[in-house]
Amino acid sequence: MQPAAANPAIEFRDVSYRVAGTQVLSGFNLQVQSGETLVLLGRSGSGKTTSLKLVNRLLSPTSGEILVKGVSNGEGDVIRLRRSIGYVIQDVGLFPHFTVEQNIGLVPKIEGWTADRVRARVQELLQKVGLAADTASRYPHQLSGGQRQRVGVARALAADPEILLMDEPFGALDPLTRDELQREFLSLQQRLHKTVVFVTHDLREALRLGSRIALMEAGRLVTLLTAKEFLQSTDPLASAYVRAFGDGRLDSAADRGTS
């Protein structure tokens, strides 16, 4: 396991979250290091998405504190906080009446970028996520699911945030498109070195994309391991994940995840 960072990009300090009488997170402690892709892995209801939403204050903790770049995210302007963090979700959430260029350029425009700068940034990002330049003038309904997801990633990167939150971003795609976007993500991360918190319930995806894997169960952190450590772990829940997916089929994914 990698040592804890002296100044983590994101830190959960004894965070709990309760809603409608249900304890979703309990005593959650976690540090996310600058430039790493930390995967939150777990079954439905384990608290993964809740943890993600607490970072950009879509939710507020019942107790405890979340620090973003050393500052409590409960302080300051929540809108400014959210604009500084890229957010990618499974259903993308593109504005249907906006063109691709307008969707990607929305936050930079709000931030006061000139039209020429926004246009140049859109073209730069379309190239980075593997889309043709003329995609800029199209509308979301004219794109495939994989293309829309690429636009969603580009939109999250538009204002060059240091932190990206990604909630099952490729989960609704067919296997071939999902594989392609995972490869695109790895290539982007090697070039950009963003701090990424990535939610998935898919072990193969976690092994392939994660610098480290935070395994969650019932609102608690069970273990925090690299891909190689995860495959060799004697933790009962981690071992159950490996058995469920099959050791032989996971070897190559683990190699990719640690490359």
SSE arrangement:
Blueprint: E1 10-19, E2 22-32, E3 37-41, H1 48-55, E4 63-68, E5 71-72, H2 78-83, E6 85-89, H3 100-104, H4 106-110, H5 115-128, H6 145-157, E7 163-167, H7 175-192, E8 195-200, H8 203-209, E9 212-217, E10 220-225, H9 227-232, H10 236-245, H11 247-257
Parallel strand pairs: 3-8, 3-9, 6-7, 7-8
Antiparallel strand pairs: 1-2, 1-4, 4-5, 9-10
Helix pairs in contact: 5-6, 8-11
Q: Quick gist of this model?
A:
With 259 residues, this protein is an alpha/beta fold. It has helices spanning 48-55, 78-83, 100-104, 106-110, 115-128, 145-157, 175-192, 203-209, 227-232, 236-245, 247-257, and strands spanning 10-19, 22-32, 37-41, 63-68, 71-72, 85-89, 163-167, 195-200, 212-217, 220-225.
How would you explain this protein's 3D organization?
It is a single chain. With 259 residues, this protein is α/β, with parallel strands linked by helices. It has two domains: 1-84 and 167-259, P-loop containing nucleotide triphosphate hydrolases (Rossmann fold, 3-Layer(aba) Sandwich); 93-161, no CATH class. The chain is 40% helix and 24% strand. The strands form two sheets. It has a six-stranded mixed beta sheet with strand order 6-7-8-3-9-10, with helices on both faces. A four-stranded antiparallel beta sheet has the order 2-1-4-5, covered by helices on one side. Helix 8 (203-209) runs parallel beside helix 11. It is globular, with a radius of gyration of 18 Å. The two termini are 15 Å apart. Residues 247-259 have low confidence and may be disordered.
